[in-house]
Amino acid sequence: xxxxxxxxxxxxxxxxxxxxxxxxxxxxxxxxxxxxxxxxxxxxxxxxxxxxxxxxxxxxxxxxxxxxxxxxxxxxxxxxxxxxxxxxxxxxxxxxxxxxxxxxxxxxxxxxxxxxxxxxxxxxxxxxxxxxxxxxxxxxxxxxxxxxxxxxxxxxxxxxxxxxxxxxxxxxxxxxxxxxxxxxxxxxxxxxxxxxxxxxxxxxxxxxxxxxxxxxxxxxxxxxxxxxxxxxxxxxxxxxxxxxxxxxxxxxxxxxxxxxxxxxxxxxxxxxxxxxxxxxxxxxxxxxx
Length: 289
Hints:
The chain has helices at 2-7, 9-29, 54-69, 100-114, 120-125, 151-161, 163-167, 191-197, 201-211, 244-248, 263-266; strands at residues 42-48, 75-82, 87-94, 128-132, 142-143, 183-189, 219-220, 233-234, 251-254, 260-262, 267-273, 281-282, 285-288. By secondary structure, it is of the alpha+beta class.
């Protein structure tokens, strides 16, 4: 074949010119995209099993969800991560060019099939299914120049004032707070005090649930009302507790002699972070990402 073109240089030159012209014609018809899709679209499933380790999360949460999500339309592969803080993250990758919204709906339907098999605590906590992308366009670091705010405040500030504003920017697909540390009322139980009083963790949890509720208080003067009743008033109750001192007054047990065991007798209550599994430092100072 090589000798054929060497002995016929004119034919070889004409063939090369034809190939160049054909390539130029085809090049004009190729699609051009400013931001082409170079990675497959992804749907992320997040569930939390408070107090469980990674093995328990895998057996109780990840396995039922994976068995139902496996085989969803246009799926390429999936990967799950289970952490010792009770968090499970399942990433499902789909074919390039498929509709991300349809992928999310299909995945959501499969996750719904797995909910009856999940622990009740996981279902109450909530399972999120959302579109995501492995490509990061920008990372923004938030910190306090004078060091007057800690990482919990900065993370909460970003969650309230920045996340939604950035998500509304045209072209932004998702905004994620990597160091999300929402404020939460932390109750640190004293096992020695609880053992001496014969209390269990379940009793404390039930007492907090029963006495920290938002319940309708009803109305005064509503029908059926006495004759001559002209006014009707809505009753407003205190509702959910807000301060650590209010949580400390929760009655855990009432004894027959009239004495009471309150939450402050067996636990320490403080306003802190919902989770302490991660933290952020920017040039040695607390921050958020």
